[in-house]
């Protein structure tokens, strides 16, 4: 499907690394590997706020027989960035985003970049940059974030903005919560989900008197559905609820599960925070079809029952968004992965939704999707 607006609005060229939280810390040149996966919300002044993940990487990670990772270290609230060298003979470097370390009884990896979050204010339609708020960037501040802060998702619930992020460290791969009264000034609240429970999306509104969220726990073991089932075993989008958005209890019913009829959901997870429509909660999520190292990421949609979001009212197997090579062609010299669109935000635009995605783990893509696209056929 073609859309009235579908373009890149923020690219690595729009990030000034002289104003990065890492500036002046490392005796090595860095560059913007990607400016992507933006959380999205509307501010009180009508503008949109994109919370962009900036993956800052070493220009030469491999030197002197070692591959290097950037790590934050220090006391709570202050610290410095350092480089950790790993002998090449112990590392697998086929994936440009990370390297695996051999020798353990399980998969151990380190990243080729460190991510921090950059608030970028956009025009109400999401198509032009108004101001880049470097002074409000969110960077590692605790030891459980020593390898970076990734993939913000922003929900407005009542008069509060709530933002979930993924914090990365050897301690845990956790979901962390920030809150804000205005969408610009953020306060760290807590770790709210523990190890490898990613893609937490808080519903934009209460159900009863409870906050609700989609979650996606990861693991290396899944039990089989019976032969002939319509579902495929593997990662799925689960549900949780909370009285205060801090302490979460998993819901006993399944959420959105991978379907056996398509390999496009062999792996799946949440995308944009669910928003309430006349038909129920509209949720955009990602499905991954296996291909080479990274896979093919596409965006899909479902409408969930307004009172019981474990009930899928409407969905379809056809993707809403796919990777758009024509958009990234001017950035061909920066490309390092392909076949990836990763939706992370949505805002109301009147007769359409403004959908924010990461394109190719490289840039921020804005697509205007007519509301009729989700209507009952």
Automatic annotation (TrEMBL):
Keywords: Glycosidase, Glycosyltransferase, Hydrolase, Transferase. PANTHER family: GLYCOSIDASE. The keyword tRNA processing does not apply. Transmembrane segments: none annotated. GO terms for molecular function: glycosyltransferase activity; hydrolase activity, acting on glycosyl bonds. Pfam families: Glyco_hydro_130. Belongs to the glycosyl hydrolase 130 family. This is Glycosidase. InterPro entries: Glyco_hydro_beta-prop_sf (IPR023296), Mannoside_phosphorylase (IPR007184).
């Amino acid at each position: 499907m073609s859309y009235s607006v579908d373009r890149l609005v923020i690219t690595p060229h729009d990030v000034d690394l002289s104003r990065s939280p890492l500036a002046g810390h490392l005796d090595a040149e860095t560059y913007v590997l990607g400016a992507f996966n933006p959380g999205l919300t509307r501010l009180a002044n009508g503008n949109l706020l994109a919370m962009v993940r900036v993956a800052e990487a070493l220009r030469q990670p491999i030197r002197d027989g070692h591959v290097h990772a950037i790590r934050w270290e220090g006391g709570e609230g202050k610290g410095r960035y350092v480089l950790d060298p790993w002998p090449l003979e112990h590392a697998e470097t086929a994936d440009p985003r990370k390297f695996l370390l051999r020798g353990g009884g399980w998969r151990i990896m380190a990243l080729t970049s460190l991510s921090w979050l950059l608030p970028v204010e956009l025009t109400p339609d999401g198509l032009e940059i108004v101001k880049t708020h470097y002074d409000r960037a969110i960077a590692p501040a605790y030891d459980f974030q020593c390898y970076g802060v990734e993939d913000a998702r922003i929900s407005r619930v009542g008069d509060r903005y709530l933002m979930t992020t993924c914090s990365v460290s050897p301690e845990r791969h956790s979901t962390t919560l920030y809150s804000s009264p205005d969408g610009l000034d953020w306060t760290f609240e807590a770790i709210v989900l523990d190890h490898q429970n990613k893609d937490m999306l808080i519903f934009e509104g209460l159900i009863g008197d409870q906050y609700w969220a989609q979650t996606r726990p990861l693991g290396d073991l899944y039990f089989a559905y019976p032969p002939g089932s319509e579902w495929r075993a593997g990662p799925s989008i689960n549900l949780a609820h909370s009285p205060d958005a801090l302490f979460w209890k998993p819901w006993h019913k399944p959420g959105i599960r991978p379907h056996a009829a398509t390999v496009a959901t062999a792996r799946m997870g949440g995308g944009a925070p669910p928003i309430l429509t006349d038909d129920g909660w509209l949720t955009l999520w990602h499905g991954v079809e296996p291909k080479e190292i990274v896979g093919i990421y596409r965006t899909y949609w479902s409408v969930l029952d307004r009172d019981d979001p474990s009930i899928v009212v409407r969905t379809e197997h056809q993707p809403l968004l796919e990777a758009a090579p024509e958009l990234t062609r001017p950035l061909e010299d920066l490309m390092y992965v392909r076949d990836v669109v990763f939706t992370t935000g949505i805002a109301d635009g009147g007769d359409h939704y403004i959908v924010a995605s990461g394109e190719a783990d490289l840039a921020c893509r804005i697509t205007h999707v007519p509301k009729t696209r989700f209507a009952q056929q």
